[in-house]
Design a protein that fits this description.
Blueprint: E1 10-12, H1 13-23, E2 28-31, H2 38-43, E3 51-54, H3 58-72, E4 76-80, H4 84-99, E5 103-109, H5 125-129, E6 135-138, H6 145-157, E7 163-169, H7 170-174, E8 176-178, H8 196-208, E9 212-216, H9 223-236, E10 240-242, E11 257-260, H10 267-275, E12 278-282, E13 305-310, E14 324-327, H11 330-339, H12 350-361, H13 373-383, E15 389-392, H14 398-404, E16 413-414, H15 424-434, E17 440-445, H16 446-452, H17 456-461, E18 466-472, H18 477-486, H19 501-507, E19 511-515, H20 518-529, E20 534-540, H21 553-560
Helix pairs in contact: 1-6, 3-4, 3-15, 9-11, 13-20, 18-21
Length: about 550
């Protein structure tokens, strides 16, 4: 007779929690340990299928979990302690929410008798996290752990995927429960079939259109959606733009790929969206960044028809006036569209035209800069495998990669659509642990890197292989750009005094190099690709060249002064 079937046998609630995670298919947990969930830490060695990754700051923990969920489609799992740990981790919850990515954050909480007394590090976590996640709750009854874990997984992956936060009172975790209390079966994403009548209406609209365009990528996007939507778009000649930081949603060599929307897009693509008579948005929320402040297209889009396909009914009609709304899984829609038979559709020439415009836009030309980031990206394209995963946080530096890198694989881009700094290095660590045979590159600005660069210690501890490129212009570049537009010449709070990033990399055990010219960057990259472990290139750039669009500090000042 096993211990679990012996009459009266019990085990801790923490052990039950870990068993529930195992049943849900959890393979990896990211954490900074805390005394509030010691019982879970004690139970984890009995779950050999779960790897525990100890990180150096809870922001890094949450970013890694968010990135892991992005790559797998299953919730990334994070454990942090109450108070400071949870508030540090909140940035990752916010990213997962705005990026529509599945994640579960477990927070060790004060003991139940202490609740409501402002106990040590106490926070009302359902109230704190409620506005930035899909569901936030506290498990007070250990017998309900199977219910809560199953619901957390189901909530995180259903509809518009997103984060869930569960608080775990520390006394609840050590309470004994019947050993026979079993986990619930693994949650699966509910099927969301496509309405045939809606599909027929869509193809009628495509047949009547003269200049349609699609905007894709977002909630529930996966490899299946990518393959089938690309097949559909190529069959119809439909130009396809990707939403902000969703550039791996279609293969870049697709003859209908038109480029990416967001910050610093191709002006010809922006004009194409403005002139379209039919806009088909698939998975994308049509958020502020993708639409340039809800102007491309406009909220009422006169003269345009808008079709919105999204798995969450609350997103349909929420911001934009919609002419046809389809609430369904984006991969189910893409498959249906690819296989739909409609001989009346005459392929458009616009897809090929738009792809040609993107090829011209994404081909770097010498800028005359001492270290030319466009040519540096081109060197990376030539030197690194096509399925390289590019990870970045927020900042103008990312614009060169968004414009010139070609995201050939899925997943191939880990970048926060909510514009959070400090994301790139933790995401790269998660990617290197998830895809051990693929090349992973973290691209970080100087300010961006110093927000979570400490996670290089995590990379070293777990033997992760990754390349880190630190773009150092001695400033918070994006804010400086806005500053020069609004208050030309009046520099305030945007200057940075930086360490020697190459030496800092060495302190973490990295091979590193400093590059002040394009030639030095290319040589460093050639050396780095032949090595393993952490490799860091410190690229020192000129602040004058502030953006991949060609904007300069002097030019911004001149325009602002009239």
């Amino acid at each position: 007779m096993s211990d679990s079937t012996r009459p009266g046998a019990t085990r801790s609630a923490a052990a039950l929690l870990v068993d529930c995670l195992t049943e849900q298919g959890c393979e990896r947990i990211f954490t900074v340990p805390g005394e509030s969930f010691l019982a879970v830490l004690d139970a984890l060695p009995d779950a050999p299928g779960i790897e525990v990754v100890t990180c150096r700051q809870e922001g890094g923990v949450a970013f890694m979990a968010c990135a892991d969920g992005t790559m797998t489609g299953r919730p990334g799992i994070a454990f942090v302690t109450r108070g400071p740990g949870a508030t540090n981790a909140s940035i990752g919850v916010h990213v997962a929410h705005q990026d529509s990515q599945p994640m579960i954050l477990f927070v060790g909480d004060v003991a139940r008798p202490m609740q409501g007394r402002e106990g040590f590090q106490e926070v009302d976590f359902p109230a704190f996290f409620g506005p930035i996640c899909k569901w936030a709750a506290r498990i007070d009854d250990p017998a309900r752990i199977p219910e809560y874990i199953a619901r957390a997984y189901a909530t995180a992956i259903s509809g518009r995927p997103g984060p869930v936060v569960l608080a775990l009172p520390e006394d609840m975790l050590v309470e004994q429960v019947p050993a026979a209390l079993a986990p619930r079966p693994a949650a699966v994403r509910p099927a969301q079939a496509v309405c045939p009548d809606a599909m027929a209406a869509l193809f009628d609209m495509i047949g009547d259109a003269a200049s349609p365009i699609a905007i894709i990528g977002g909630a529930g996007w996966n490899a299946k959606a990518r393959a089938y939507f690309q097949k559909f778009a190529e069959r119809t000649g439909l130009p396809v733009a990707t939403a902000f930081r969703r550039q791996d949603a279609i293969a870049p060599d697709s003859p209908v790929y038109a480029g990416n929307l967001g910050y610093g897009p191709n002006p010809k693509l922006v004009e194409r969206v403005k002139q379209a008579d039919l806009v088909i948005a698939v998975g994308a929320r049509l958020g502020e960044a993708t639409t340039d402040g809800y102007e491309v297209p406009t909220l009422e889009h006169p003269g345009q028809l808008l079709v919105h396909i999204h798995p969450d009914p609350e997103e349909l009609g929420r911001v934009y006036r919609t002419d046809l709304a389809l609430c369904c899984s984006v991969d189910e829609f893409a498959e249906c569209a690819a296989l739909w038979e409609d001989e009346a559709i005459i392929p458009f020439d616009a897809g090929a035209e738009a792809h040609g415009e993107w090829l011209e836009w994404s081909t770097p030309q010498p800028s005359g800069a001492t270290i030319d980031l466009g040519l540096c990206v081109k060197a990376m394209r030539d030197a690194l495998p096509a399925d390289t995963i590019i990870c970045n946080g927020a900042g103008n530096f990312a614009g060169w990669w968004h414009r010139y890198w070609r995201y050939a694989a899925y997943p191939g881009q880990l970048a926060p659509t909510c514009g959070a700094m400090g994301y790139g290095v933790p995401a790269a660590v998660a990617a290197a642990l998830r895809f051990k045979t693929r090349t992973v590159v973290a691209v970080a600005g100087d300010g961006d890197f110093l927000m979570n660069g400490q996670e290089l210690a995590t990379a070293a501890q777990y033997g992760a292989n990754l390349i880190v490129v630190v773009i150092d212009n001695g400033a918070y570049g994006t804010i400086r750009m806005h500053q020069e537009r609004e208050y030309p010449g009046r520099v305030s709070a945007t200057q940075l005094a930086n360490p020697d990033f190459a030496l800092l990399g060495q302190a973490y055990g990295a091979w590193s190099a400093r590059a002040e010219t394009t030639e030095q960057f290319v040589a460093a990259l050639d050396e780095a690709k032949g090595r393993s472990g952490i490799r860091l290139i410190h690229a020192v750039t000129d602040l004058e060249r502030i953006a991949a669009s060609g904007a300069t500090i002097s030019g911004l000042r001149a325009r602002a002064k009239g």
